[in-house]
Amino acid sequence: MKNPLSAWLDRLLGRGEAATTVPIMDGALRPNRLLDAAQVVARLSGIEDIAGSADQLWVCAGSDVYRLAGDGLQKAHNLPAPVTALAAAPDGRLAVALQGRQVRLLGGAHDGAQLDQVAGQPLRSVNALAFGAQTLWITEGSRQRDYTQWSHDLMELGHSGRVCAWHWAEGSSKEIAKDLAFAFGAAEGADGALLVSESWRHCVLALRDGQAQPWLHDMPAYPSRMARAADGGFWLTCFAARTQLVEFVLREPTYRKRMMAEIDPAYWIAPALSSGRSYLEPLQGAGVKQMGIVKPWAPPRSYGLVIRVSAQGRIESSLHSRVDGHHHGITAVAEFDGALYVASKGSGQLLRLPLASIQGSAA
Amino acid sequence: MNAPSTATPEVVLELRQATKKYAGVPAIEDVDFNLRHGEVHALLGENGAGKSTLSKVLAGVVTLSSGHMLLEGREVNFKTPLEAHHHGIAMVFQETSLVPSMTVAQNLFLGQEAFFNRLRGTYIAAQQFLQSLNFDVNPTALVGMLGAAQKQMVEIARAVLNNARIIIFDEPTATLTPEEKRYFFDLVVQLKKRGVSIIFISHALEEALLLADRITILRDGKLVVTDDKDKFDRARIIQAMVGRDMSQTMYGVHKTRVRPQGECLLSVQNLRMASMVKNNSLSVFAGQVTGVFGLVGAGRTETFKVVAGLIKRDFFYGGEVRLRGRPVRYRVPAPAVRDGIAYITEDRKFEGFFDHMSIPRNIYLGVLAKKKSRKPLVSAAEERGLGEYWTKMLSIRAIDKNVNAVELSGGNQQKVVIAKSLAQEPDVIIFDEPTRGVDVGAIAEIHAEINRLADAGKAVVVISSYLPEILSLSDRILVAKKGKVVEEFSALEATEEKIMYAAIH
After folding, report:
1. Mutation site, A21, A29, A213, interface B, largest B CB count within 10 A
2. Within a domain: B2
3. How many domains is chain A built from?
4. pTM for the whole thing?
């Protein structure tokens, strides 16, 4: 618990937690245009998640689950509610989250098994799933808001997210961690730890024996779903980038409250999955546009970012779609058949980048 | 001491068999040197080669131990700089000798004022005189408020005002920005047209090749060669200066690999400091050399001085500095030093070392600055040991190991400053203009040390205004402009053109 006097001084002097600063994207995070140069495999409005197994790549959008077939997509499942998360096990079974409120297995010995609550609390905003050995890891962003209301959760400084484990064969489930500031994405680390993105705290945690340690911290963007890379390490998606203006708004409760009460959420001063479609969108000081052209270095309302992280937690390279790019709001990524598939929810497109080309070009 | 007059008419100043010894040790030995009428003569050599001694002899600051000096064929032996001045020889030192609290006009006429001095008349005379030289300097401006180039103009104007026929420039461009250098070069050309002979001491070989008519190279106090500029190229100059071919180890080779990025040790986020640093953000990684390039006013030095606690960021909303992810805010340098940040200043003479302390004592002071609980007594043995270790490690060359730092050459002084910081065993080392005013041999040694530090996993920052240096040292290059970093390049893709474009546009 922080000393109130110290907190007041910090606020007065704009330091510590009251400093409206944002880390720079440089070094391995140096901007490039690799995501904009990616091949568009399919246009899928509402594309949400991707999952790769040994012989198949799965994609979900709306209530449908697709499989990759040749150069296009083929519908494999139609579900009764929008799919908010998808995972594929090596044996080919799938796990889906329906409207964030129910997790269901598709295929395999426990086909149709469902999970609606964990530790006596109903699921409300399941946003990512990951298969472990006889365990399904579940991240729930918020217990106060639905999955689609993630920006509400951010503006309310939500910290009711949790990580759960479902042992479907035993029919048991439990909470691994709770009170997280928007848990969004999980993966098993190389050393047995469970890695979990905590979006609103801009970090990835390593959960070991009930203890959480920062694995990546002070990130310049909001981390989300993760996928294992074939040669070790991870691909980490970031669905939006941080800006000083949003950080400032997050420190002004009265302003936020009024903004949320009076303004359409599409026009809030908040991160977005896509932008530039309406003149009503908020701008920041600095030249977002000059002579009608959006500048790539302008503060981003929406951004496209995928980060390659080593197994030891070191950022190695990154793929970007800058402010003036098109493939923003990256929510999922998966390696499959020598290529990296990327879901750009902001543009509603499934992208493909050959791994060899990434290694040669990324920072 | 009377030598026969055999000088050719065009030679205005001549040294024959000139030797100057300090405590029996020759600084220059048997030097035969001549300066022609209206020529620009570059004097090159490593630090300690004897350039400064030679120029001081010519300017009357020191007298010869043996040999002859002839001015327009007549033997002279200046005992004081004033005597040389009366004979039309003026020297413009690296650190100007102007009075900063006086105006330009007052400095110009200092020592020549009438008994009833009328300031307005002085200003008018100064204005007319500066205009005649085509120098764009306001005579009523305080010298302390002028930039380095303008100060140099005032120095030059003062020399010309005193009817100097020979002007000796000691490292005139060391403190100038690229734009100011161009301005200075124009001045030299103007002076030459007026028939003034110029001796030009510099470490920047390109400048010598650009400006000089003839080049003289000294090594270890002896004259190696004097020849027309056209007969020199960079490789020949370097070889003559150091006695070995170093062109391939300096700026000649383009980088083909860079060190991989390690942990982010230092992160500067949205830093603000007055009008010099504007919302500046950057990261520095372990195991790499991060080069920071920018024109003067780009806020590079100020940013890193805030990092090291030498100056303070803006009081309100001044951004953050994070060391290993932990926010830090240093109000004085000592805690920054203790946390492993070393800032090696660009201004070694004022901020880098104590003039009248020995090499070991200067280095030991660095160690004492890091220690939190100081012992009641300092250890002479520890001081001696440190001195010996770092003198050997950085090849600091001095006549005696206990010699005062002020008596060392520029390159060796810089090595003392570096040793003082490295003795603190820092993790983040910020070199600000590490080779300014340093000779070629010492540059190579300092560069080798910078590379060794990065190879050892330290996070190294090199702030430099010299593009070839940035290109040859850096693994990643940050370009600053108007108070913030505006572009980043990998050393593999960077070119001088790309960097300069980013720094200007």
Report:
1. A21
2. no
3. 1
4. 0.74
